[in-house]
Design a protein that fits this description.
Elements: E1 4-7, E2 13-16, H1 19-76, H2 78-108
Antiparallel strand pairs: 1-2
Length: about 110
């Protein structure tokens, strides 16, 4: 039975498919559905990979932020360390001077 197209009295078109045409439509529909499923699966796989990579970047960023916080804390201590070194140098100079004075005093006795 070949494909028949008829116009009905109410203005609508009506068509009937023969057995070969039905098989062609069934094969075409199955190809379309298979292609759609393959595309959806491919898209899902790509999104999963992208999510994994994004998670790796987030982890690396967290590690980097921790390192930056550590460096910032260490750099914040630099002025205090400089001040302490200056105080230690002054104390060393004072002690050196005191030692010289004590040696001179012993030499007089």
């Amino acid at each position: 039975m070949p494909m028949e197209v008829q116009r009905e009295g109410d203005g609508h078109w009506r068509f009937a498919l023969g057995p070969v045409e039905k098989w062609i439509v069934a094969v075409a529909a199955s190809v379309l559905v298979s292609g759609g499923l393959w595309f959806a699966n491919s898209l899902t796989t790509r999104l999963d990979r992208q999510t994994e990579r994004l998670q790796a970047v987030v982890t690396q960023q967290a590690v980097t932020n921790g390192q930056i916080a550590t460096l910032s804390a260490q750099l914040a201590d630099v002025p205090a360390l400089t001040r302490e070194m200056a105080q230690a140098k002054v104390q060393i100079d004072r002690n050196t001077q005191d030692i010289k004075e004590l040696r001179q005093t012993r030499g007089l006795r």
